[in-house]
Write a structure and sequence with these properties.
With 394 residues, this protein is an all-alpha fold. It has a single domain, classed as Up-down Bundle (Na+/H+ antiporter like fold), CATH 1.20.1530. The chain is 74% helix and 0% strand. The protein has 16 helices and no strands. The radius of gyration is 21 Å and the shape is globular.
Amino acid sequence: MIIQGMNIVNFLLGLSMILLCAKLFGELALHIGQSEIIGELFAGIVLGPCMFNVIHETPILLMMAEIGSIILLFDVGLSINIKNFIKSSKLAFLVAISGILIPYLFVYIVFTSFHFTKFQAAFAAAILTATSIAVTARILKDSNKLETQEAEIVLGAAFIDDILGIFILTIVLKIISGKSITTYSVIQILIRIIIFFISAILFSVILPLVYKLIAKMKQEYSLLIVTICICFMIATIAVKAELATIVGAFIFGIMLTRTHTIKQIKQDIKPLYSFFVPIFFVLMGSNIKLNIFNPFIMDNAKFMIITLVIFIASFLGKLLSGFIILRKGVDKLIIGLSMVPRGEVGLIFARIGLQHNIFETNYYSVLVTVIMLLTLITPIILKYLLGKRNLTTI
């Protein structure tokens, strides 16, 4: 077991293995047309107890993974196109709401049918509601379809999806902490999020001035260092406001989209992203138990059945959200399929569930496997359809 003690040699060796395997499997995933996230999760499976059993979670690795999740959501925030969101806000909101309610209801019914508690069912349903902005945007970009009305609706809906997903996460964290959830407490959480947003908007007013001063600094990477420091401080304030660190990072990323330095920040953040984010996904993968899908073990039948049923429910739930739109000339199937891929937010939800013992490792593995399957299979179908259909460029 390479990473168990705090010995610096073992730590450096283990960290090197995590990063190298993440890059290797990430590269393989990209070569077969998949997201590198899938490759990083597989790297964790290979290095973890499921196969070679050479990495284990330690306090320092968990801290680095937490930083990875903060940088991940900060980067997602940077990718939000506010102008496109405003243009398609009505239809995007309709798709987003249906894209949360329908799969949430489907997955909740599935879990309660398999005799899970209502809380476990609610948590699992929350995990499988958020669409992956990164995966969806990548597919549309690779297919040269970003300048279509379908893309505007999908990306706007994915943005709302993440915001509502963060709201659901906040409520779930309240439940985990042992605090009762009532209508009053939900309203309190909503008010707290709104106040946080308003404060962020007010702060964003002075951001251009702050970044003009930063631009005058002569030291290398001053822009990046100050940006990361502000990001961490806002993440800390979010915790003080009883929200999650990733909420603060996500909102700060959105705030920066209106600054003149956004392109430089996106470029500068890449090395940090490439270092910390894979650690997060590799550690996630290391907790997956693939042996529960061994068909030659009778006790595994229930896990395989649950995985299949949840996959179908999650896939159909998002697919149907595209058909909520009644406007003519909009490709409803493309919109529905584009909403199917899950990713960053759902995986963070799943990890929180494992850390707080909401699910045992077997069912955590089921949920992450469903997310992986949705992210693996959907791009193949979507890329094929995008190549066959003529979407109107706006």
